[in-house]
Amino acid sequence: MKKIIITEDTKNRHFNELKDKLKKLEKLLKKIKAPYSLNDVLLAKPYKLYEIAQWSKKKIYFIPLKNEYKHSERYTFFNINFNFINDLYNNFTKKKQEYNAYDLAKSLNVNTCPYCNINSIYTVIDENNEKIIRPEFDHFFDKATYPILALSLYNLIPSCHQCNSNLKGKEKFDLGNYLHPYIDNIDKHIKFKIKIINAKFYHSIDGFKLEIDYLSQKAVNHNNIFKLEERYSYLKDIILELIQKKYMYNEDYLESLFKKYEGTFFRNLEDLMRLVSDGYINESEINKRPLSKLIKDISEELGLI
Predict the structure, then answer these.
(1) Which of 33, 55, 105, 172 is most buried by a 10 A CB count?
(2) Which residues, listed in sequence order, are joined to residue 304 by a DSSP beta bridge?
(3) DSSP secondary-structure letter at 7?
(4) pTM
(5) How far is CA 67 from the centre of its chain?
(6) For residues 305 and 303, what is the distance between their CA atoms, to the nearest angstrom?
(7) Domains of the chain by residue range
(8) What is the CB neighbour count within 10 angstroms for residue 282?
């Protein structure tokens, strides 16, 4: 749920590995005197990608021709279809030795789905370069409507099958209404909390309710698509364990554990609290392990961390 940072090495490799496969697109852009280059299409950030997406919806491109008559104008026009880029994307997703979706996913190094923080999406490529598993890639701007963006780096969101295929599908997203994992820290837009219902809360999931505060309209829209409330409601057993740990691991006990194992198991208190809570409690590390956002919010509310 933390904003995904793309390194310069990842950008450079993505462009250099794909530019020859997109010669046809590069020639088309030059032929119709497009205001965007191949570099723009592959590497532009989301707001510029939106501009390219809207431009690509034009059906006819008028090109001025050189004319021997100084004061007259002649034009030719092209009806361009960018669907061939979807075919290139489909090939990009296949297992092969050359640069493909597995290599990109590995380079992005995102281990949990940025949309939900529920599911692992790690990439496995073995020592013999056999490509085993990877996350799916969601097209933030859907590739059916905007095929020109099918291979655009900032349009490819590593995500879990539930979020990409089961929930988002072909939904039309835009930057004004939806959170974008390369722009937004989604964790800043939602907050998990518990509501105590009865005295059974410390030994039964029926004693409390999980609630989510949505801190922006985009967060509300995010939930409407990715069904966070419904999905997290099945994880109340984790919250119950945190409640129990709050009473088991009092301050004196935590201090004694740290003193006993400092320098062996724990480098600092944060290491100890990660062990106790089963999640990364440092805000910058939420993407490293599933459910870390939930665990962090509830642990803070309980005073466990």
Answers:
(1) 105
(2) none
(3) P
(4) 0.87
(5) 50
(6) 5
(7) 8-168, 186-302
(8) 12
- The amino acid at residue 35 is P
Q: pLDDT (tens digit, 9 = 90+) per residue, 147-196?
A: 999 999 999 999 999 999 999 998 999 999 999 999 999 999 999 999 99
- Summarize the chain as % helix, strand, coil (round to 5): 50, 15, 40
- Three-state SS annotation for 96-154: CCCCCHHHHHHHHCCCECCCCCCCECCCEECCCCCEEECCEEEECCCCCCCHHHCCCHH
pLDDT per position as a tens digit, 98-133: 999 999 999 999 999 999 999 999 999 998 889 999
Residue 206 CA to residue 202 CA, distance in Å, equals 10
Residues recorded for the chain: 305
Query: Crossing angle of helices 292-302/269-277, nearest 10°?
Result: 100
Q: CB of 158 within 8 A of CB of 114?
A: yes
Q: Residue 212's beta-bridge partner residues?
A: 192
Residue whose pair of structure tokens reads 């099918």 in the numeric block: 150
* 303 Rama sector, left if φ>0, alpha if ψ -120 to 50, beta otherwise: left
CA dist., res. 60 & res. 77, Å (int): 6
Q: How far is it, in rounded angstroms, from Cα 13 to Cα 43?
A: 11
Give me the residues paired with residue 215 across strands. Answer: none
> Rounded CA gap, 292 and 278, in Å?
8
CB count in 10 Å sphere of residue 276: 20
